[in-house]
Structure formats: C-alpha cells, structure tokens
Amino acid sequence: MNLASLFVPIAGGRLGGSLRSLWAWWLRELQGMVPARLRRMLRGSGHVLLVDVTDRLAVIRRVRQNGDEEVGRILLENADAANRRAQFAVYADALPGGPRQVVVRVPAARVLRKVLDLPAAAQENLREILGLEMDRLTPFNAADVYYTHRILEVDRQAKRLVVELLILPRAVADPAIEAVHGLGLGADRLEVTTEGSRAGAPEGARVDFLPASAGAATSSRRRPLIIALAAAALGLLVAAMVLPLQQQRRLIETLEAQVATAKVKADAGRKLQAEMQQAIAQSNFIIDRKRNRPAFVDVLDELTTLLPDNTWLIRIRYYNGELQAFGNSPAASALVGVLEASPVFAEAQFRAPVTRDPRLGVERFHIGAQVVDPEKAEADE
After folding, report:
1. Is 100 left (phi over 0), alpha (psi -120 to 50) or beta?
2. Which structural domain range is residue 334 located in?
3. Nearest to 111 by CA among 214, 210, 215, 209
4. CATH number of the domain where residue 362 is located
5. What is the pLDDT of residues 308-320, one digit of tens each?
6. 97 and 204 belong to one structural domain
7. Same structural domain for residues 59 and 202?
8. Domain end among 192, 221, 250
C-alpha cells in the first residue's frame, strides 16, 4: 500500500497542474519520513525477487529466510523479446502472488569506487554535490551513470568526512533494467551481485543505485510518525517550498569554498612552475655558453704555444668570444699570420697601430682575434 493513494481524492481536479506536481512531490517526501517498519506494514508481507543479469543470462532467485532460492534461468543472448517472455512464463507459476520487490543485480566487477575527502558541510546535500562534481571527480558525467555513496568516517573536530562514491555506468545497468522490464517485471532496486545469500552480504554490497530509493535510504531526517497528516498538510507544504531554497544556498556556499580553495592551489602551482622554468632556463644558459665556447685555459695554452719565445705578453682580454692580446715582439707584423694559421683563432688583425720602442728595440702590438671551437668548425665544414 502506498501512502500517496490515501490522498488521491484530495489532489484531484481542483488543483492546477503545477499544484498537483508539488502535491505529489510532498507525498513522496512524507512517505520517506515514515519509519520503515510502518511502511512494511502498510505495504503488506510481500517477497523479494532477485534478478541477476549478465550479457548472456538472467538468473531469477527468491529471497527466503534460510537463503536465496534459484527459481530459473533465462537465456538473453540471441533471444528476442517474445522468446524471453516465453522462457519467463515457465517460471512465473512458481512465484508467489501478492506484492513483491524486484531487485535487479549486475556483476560487482562493473562498479567503480572512489574514496573522497569532503567538507562536513557537504553531508546534508551530499548526493546533489556528488552529482554536480561528478565530471570533475570521475571521467563520467552524472547523466551517464547511476551512483550512490557511503559515509565511511566523520571527523567533527576537523569538520571533514570521508565518503565512498560508488558508480555504475548506465551503459551496463540500463540494458539489465530493460531486460527485466521485458520480462514484465518492475525494477524497485538496482544492486550488484554478492557471493552467497543476499541477507548475509555486507551492507556495502546491498546499496541501491536507483536515485529514487537512494535518496530515501540515505536521508538523515528521521521524524516521528505524523499522526494527523491531513491537519499538518498546509504547514508541510509551506516548509516544502522554503527548504529547497535553503538547501540551494548551502550548496552554493560549499561550492564557492571549494572553488576558492582550488583557485589558491592553482595559483600556487602556476607560480612554482614559472619559477622552475626560469631556474632551468638560467641554468641552461650558463651550460650552453660554456659548451659553445672553448675554455680560457685552452685558449691561453694555444696562444702561448703559437707565439715565438722572444714575444712577451703584457695583458690578455678574453670576452664574448674575442681574444685581445697586448705585448712586445721584435717582429709584431708576423704575429697575425701565426694566429691565422691556428684552428682556434680567426679574423686576426691589429686593433691599434704597431709602435716601436727604441729603448728596448721591440715593437708594441695590440692584436684581436675571434676564438672558435675547432671541433665545431670541422663539423660545420
């Protein structure tokens, strides 16, 4: 028995289309507040039917007190809708009549799990937040999956909670639900298969992925049974119009806090990346400069080897790939040819006129030449 059926005459033609929709929503919320024991009393003593669906097979089981009893198996592969219904008709007579709950189950290996660390403020609207953040937390959009969650831990001191997000792609679940509908059965719950009986399975293995029942199963608002439902209808109707606005405001505040935190982390990451790139560029500049130019000690060794013993160097300057030598020599004019003959020097020429020192009998010179890497010059040739 459904609580909504008690109020069908009230929500008749006197209400407009929008009021009837609001009234139906309020009745569903009211039904979710009724204790589970009373809902079972109103619904009657029905039975639970398990339908385990794979790509090839649908196994029908009936839940009993001493375990799950297999009723029959229906081949799905290479079978059209009529053939599947004919197979189910063979086992339909073995099923008891009266109300029943149909649980569609798919292989547990198809479920994706992720543990999340969230602010405690997200607990009240946790399912809505997970739906909005689905494309950021997972590779899927909320419209492409069935999902539910379990709260694993609540740290009130740190105002954090640890949540396990369970995701079942619609590409896996929808064909199973359609196959069950094709047998003439409804789908009250969507679960995953368990080893052994369903009653003995852990609580985490019996979570419901269908959004309508998931919202009722995880609701934290447990109120005493409303004795005078008709008398409280007006007050609850007003509350139903105000609560969504408050929930929306809390959701926005939570998302704004998450966006601000993510922005701070992103800015810090970009700043650190820029600093690292700058440091690498500076390090590579120094390394490349040293690699592309001969070391000064090698240049000095080549110069002292080339110059005659009667030539004296007074000062040497090596800057930006150019060597400038100042000194005295009995025959300074021959030094240009000596440097040009070396593979280390190129474009040797006097930077200033040669002057003669009559006191010492020598010529003073200022020669400049470009320094090249012999190995690189041979490679270019």
Report:
1. beta
2. 296-380
3. 209
4. 3.30.1360.100
5. 888 888 888 888 8
6. yes
7. yes
8. 221
Residue ranges in the chain assigned as alpha helix (H): 17-33, 36-43, 81-92, 126-132, 134-137, 170-182, 211-217, 233-292, 296-306, 335-340, 374-380
Count of structural domains within the chain:
2
What is the amino acid identity at position 127?
R
185 Rama sector, left if φ>0, alpha if ψ -120 to 50, beta otherwise: beta
- Tokens 């028995």 correspond to 1
Bridge-based pairing state of the strands 145-155 and 322-329? unpaired
- Structure tokens given for 329: 């020599």
**Which CATH number do you get for residue 151?**
3.30.420.380
Alpha carbon separation from 125 to 129, 206, 209, 212 (Å, rounded): 6, 22, 17, 15
pLDDT in tens, 291-301: 666 777 878 88
What pLDDT shows up at residue 66? 79
Average pLDDT, the chain: 78
Cβ(104)–Cβ(177) below 8 Å: yes
Domain end call among 170, 188, 221: 221
